[in-house]
Amino acid sequence: MNRYPTWGYVLIAVAILAAFLYTLPNFFGESPAVQVSSARATVKVDPALLQKVQDTLKKADIPYRGAVFDQSGIRVRFDDTDTQLKAKDLIHATLNPGAAPQATPEDDPSVNYVVALNLLPASPSWLSAIRALPMYLGLDLRGGVHFLLQVDMQGATTKRLESIAGDLRSQLREKNVRHGGVTREGQTLRVRLRDAAMRDRAREAILANLPDLAMTEREDGQDLLLIAALKPEAVKRNQEYALKQNITTLHNRINELGVAEPVIQQQGAERIVVQLPGVQDVTRAKRLIGRTATLEIRMVAEEHMNPEALAAAARGQVPFGTEYYVERNGQPLLVRRQVVLTGDRLTDAQPGFDSQTNEPAVHLRLDGQGARIFQEVTRENVNKRMAILLIEKGKGEVVTAPVIRSEIPGGRVQISGRMSTTEATDVALLLRAGSLAAPMEIVEERTVGPSLGRDNIQKGFNATMWGFVAIVVFMSAYYAAFGLISSLALAINLLFLVALLSLLQATLTLPGIAAIALTLGMAIDANVLINERIREELRGGATPQAAIAAGYERAWGTILDSNITSLIAGLSLLIFGQGPVRGFAVVHCLGILTSMFSAVTVSRAVVNLVYGHRRRVARLAIGNTSWK
Fold it and tell me: CA dist 601 to 239, 371, 591, Å?
């Protein structure tokens, strides 16, 4: 006689209840909302600001469904998009007085708070309290902008060599090694030396302090050359770092501008995928992610600052080791190629005003090592000019070139000089978000409209629904009562799968919906094996109770083998796939795990609930004929 233990029924009931609770938020949809966050580090979002927002909405008689304050800022829910848009404009005008209606932090320095449109789950608060949240919707279901970026790995190596060149000069100076200059040619660094003794001392100092370099020697006329190149493992490590640094920088830039739920992830060895849900302005998105602003501090070549040398440089005859620039006041300037300090040493950058001239300025703060280097450089170059350059898209611009009046300790630097307030804010944003470790270019872009996303959701839902109905009809017609039980187990499997995706906060995409539909077909296969095995046992003369027990026990091995092979294929897609393939693989693997539980454990519990409480079962309804 088949009896199922009471604790088994309790376990299944608890699992179904939990799955129902964590699936429930997906049926409430999303509410239009307005999100308020800080536009700069010096401006805080606190509960007092929440009260100000609520008072503003009440005074204007704009209804809202609720307002919350958390680490991400303030979020206010509304009933419809018209109210949402009206509230956004009102809140923006209240919190950013004097700013244009659609102004953003990168456009207008008077914008202290980012007021962005958003969509928030409309589920009740008691569900949110138990962390029951809906699944995220991918770009193809929600709409937005998709970019595929190619990272210039050669540029990353070049930038690393430029940085090493500065370190190498410092090392040789500390070791008192006289040399004829350190230059970069292609992907190598060349140190020119006069005699073998200095060459040996230089090689020893470089290998001791810069182990990533491989050294070779060559003669060049009367001089000796040490040629240094990055080792292959160092090149690979530097490229991996550049990719991760670019991803971090993109996160910082996008987060500062209030884009909700962005997807920024690596694809392959040299590419980055950026998805911005809800963003429809491709031009603004390109400007946001494509700008590459880095800071460089160099010394002015004072010995060449004479009319003859400047006139020759303007014609293209630039002295060795220098670069020609024109200041914002129109004055020509020759700047050394050697970089004293880069923006990598920045810890903060804020727009502001010069305390003496009241001109717009950018206030920088350096880390410990950067502050030490800056203090040493200013101490050694009193009464000399220092140029501060902003490098963007490979082109440099001298923002200011002041005279060093005294040693500057503390790591606080100011950039000013014929700069507008908008430019000061823009420069501060880019420097604060971090510089890109390597240049990038957009190799693919596409925009998905919100209406197309809704259409994709509707079609995917209909495909899954009609697939489920077709399976239920077939199973009920072919296996009678056992077919209905299998269909019930299949519905519970779907409930478990959606609950797991919601609990893990997975992102549902069109390939994910396809995987759900595939899971339905694969999950019912286990019940087909069980039902056919029970039929075989009945044909062999087994009693109904014995046939049920043997059917489940003997079909289990086949079910396990088939699901393990499918799981191996799914894990391979998950490990080696990218983008939509991984989205499909996640749902596929979770569906296999939930189907093994529902098809075997849940269906057997229901079968035993129907037939197991009796001592003797006369017949089983498992096909066109009732087997006895």
Answer: 50, 65, 15
> Which tokens go with 498?
């959606």
**Closest residue by Cα to residue 611 from 595, 596, 627:** 627
Structure tokens at 540: 């062999």
Task: Report the C-alpha gap between 261 and 255 in whole angstroms.
Answer: 9
Q: Which pair of tokens denotes residue 224?
A: 């000796």
Helices 603-611/544-576 angle, 10° precision: 170
d(CA 45, CA 39): 10
The CA distances from residue 460 to 217, 467, 515, in Å, are 65, 11, 11
- Half-sphere exposure for 594 (CA within 13 Å, toward CB): 25
CA distance 589 to 514: 13
Helix (H, G, I), strand (E, B) or coil at 333: strand
- Per-residue pLDDT reduced to its tens digit, 396-407: 778 778 778 778
Which of the residues in the chain have pLDDT under 70?
1-2, 39-44, 71-72, 100-111, 252-253, 255-261, 278-285, 287-288, 290-294, 328, 347-348, 392-394, 415-420, 422-423, 426-436, 450, 579, 613-615, 617-618, 624-628
CB neighbourhood size of 267 (10 A): 13
Angle formed at CA 204 by CA 198 and CA 205, multiple of 5 degrees: 90
Instruction: Quote the tokens at residue 409.
Output: 């300790």
Nearest partner of 496 among 594, 353, 381, judged by Cα: 594
List, in order, residues 6 or more apart from 296 with CB less than 8 Å away: 339, 341, 342, 343, 388, 389, 391, 396
Residue 250 belongs to what H/E stretch?
A: helix 232-256
Look at residue 470 and give its three-state secondary structure: helix
pLDDT at 627: 47
Distance CA 232, CA 212 (A): 9
Is 116 within 8 Å of 37 (Cβ atoms)? yes
Distance CA 396, CA 55 (A): 48
Q: Name the residue among 614, 612, 613, 611 with its Cα closest to residue 622.
A: 611
Q: How far apart are CA 505 and CA 501, in angstroms?
A: 6
User: From CA 519, how far away is CA 506, in angstroms rounded?
Assistant: 17
Going 379 to 381 to 385 to 389, the CA torsion angle's sign is negative
| Cβ atoms within 10 Å, residue 59 | 10
The answer to whether 459 touches 451, Cβ cutoff 8 Å, is no
Task: Evaluate whether 93 touches 34 at the Cβ level (below 8 Å).
Answer: no
- Dihedral-angle region of residue 480 (phi above 0 means left; psi in -120 to 50 means alpha; beta otherwise): left
Distance, in Å, from the CA atom of 315 to the CA atom of 298, rounded to the nearest integer, reads 22
**pLDDT, tens only, 238-287:** 888 888 878 877 876 676 555 556 788 888 888 888 888 766 556 666 76
Give Cα 428 to chain centroid, integer Å: 22
Integer Rg of the chain from CA: 34
Tokens of 34: 């307005």
**From residue 119, how far is each of 90, 115, 311, 365 by CA, in Å?**
18, 13, 59, 36
Q: Tell me the C-alpha distance between 501 and 590, whole Å.
A: 8
Distance between CA atoms of 53 and 41, rounded to whole angstroms? Answer: 20
How many whole angstroms separate alpha carbon 524 and alpha carbon 14?
23
Amino acid identity at 211: P
The CA distance from 383 to 326, in Å, is 21
Cα–Cα distances in angstroms (integers) from residue 553 to residues 479, 484, 537, in the given order: 19, 20, 12
